[in-house]
Specification:
- With 327 residues, the chain is of the alpha/beta class.
- 40% of the residues lie in helices and 13% in strands.
- The protein is built from eleven helices and ten strands.
- The strands form two sheets. The chain has an eight-stranded mixed β-sheet.
- Strand 7, helix 5 and strand 8 form a beta-alpha-beta unit.
- It is globular and about 60 Å long.
Amino acid sequence: ISIFFRQQSVPFLFHTNQIKSKSSIISQYRFCSVSHSKSKSSKQKEIHTLGIIGAGQIGMGILLHTLTVTNKEVILIDLDNLALQKCRSFMENHLEKRVQAGRMSVAKKNAFINRVTMSTSIIGFNADFVIEAVPEDEGIKKRLFQDIFPNLNSDVVMASHTASLSITKLANSVPEYKHRVVGMHFMHPVQATSLVEIIPGFDTSNETIETALGLVRNLGKTAVKSADMPGFLSFRILLPFINEAIYALNENVGTREDIDRTFKLGVGCSLGPLEIADYIGLDTCLLVLRTLQSDLGSEKFRPCPLLTKYVNSGRLGRKTGQGFYSY
C-alpha cells in the first residue's frame, strides 16, 4: 500500500499479508531506540548467500531486488513446487523485459538467473542469512523455525517477515536459538520502496540486530527499528488513520472523494486513506484494528461499524472488485 509524497523521490509503502492470527500476547518487550548508526561493539556477519523461504509476492520481491542491487547468491525455498515454477517464470519474464527494453544484456540476465537456486527441501540449506516470508500464521512460522534452525550454521540469523506477529513469541518456539531471531517487515512492492522495519524480540542479540541492519543497508534500503508491540510502527500509525477516515465517511463529514482528495491535495499523498484501505483489503484492516484494540486495550482502535458492514457484505476492496470504490 503506497503513499507517495511528492516532495520525496522514494515512495513510502505499508503492507501486510493476509493476517490470520486474531490476537497476540503482550508480556514484556524491549523497547529499542531508533538508531541508524552501526554499533562499534557488535559484530556484523558478512552475507554472501541469502536464503528466502516462501515464494509469494514478498519472497519474490526480495529475490528480484537482491539480484538487482547486490552480487549475492539467493536460495529460494518453498514446499510447493508449482509456486517455485511460477516464481522462476516470473523472474525470467521480468528479466527478459529488461533485456528487450535495452536495460540489461542477455549475458547479465543469464548471470542473474544462475545466482538463484530453488528447492522444496531445507536439507542442506546453506545460507548466511535467512528471511522467512511464509503466510502470516503464528503456527506455521513456529513450526518452520523448529524445522529449519537445526539445519542452519550456528551463526545464521533468521528474520521473520511479519506485519503483526510478536517476534518474542515466535523466537520462544526455539529457545536455543531465540537470540538469532529478528523481525524484518519489508514494504510492498519490495523493489519500489526504500523502507524496512526491524523488530528485535526480547532476547534478540545486538549482533543479530546489527547483521539485519547491515543487510538492509546492503540492499540499498533504510531501516527503522520498532519495539515488538502490536502493529509495530507502520500499522500502529496507519490503521487508526484509515479508521478515522471511515468514521468521517460514516458520520457524513465528507464524501469518500472529498476525504481522499483532502489528503491527496492537502497533504501530498497520491492515495487517500479510503483508497489505501481498499488496496490493503478491508478484511485485513478490520482484523488488524481488532488486534490492536484487544492487545493494547484502547478504544481508539475500535473499528468503525461501517468497516464491519463492508466486510460482512463481502466488499473487501480491490481483491473483490468492490470496496469503498468499484474496480
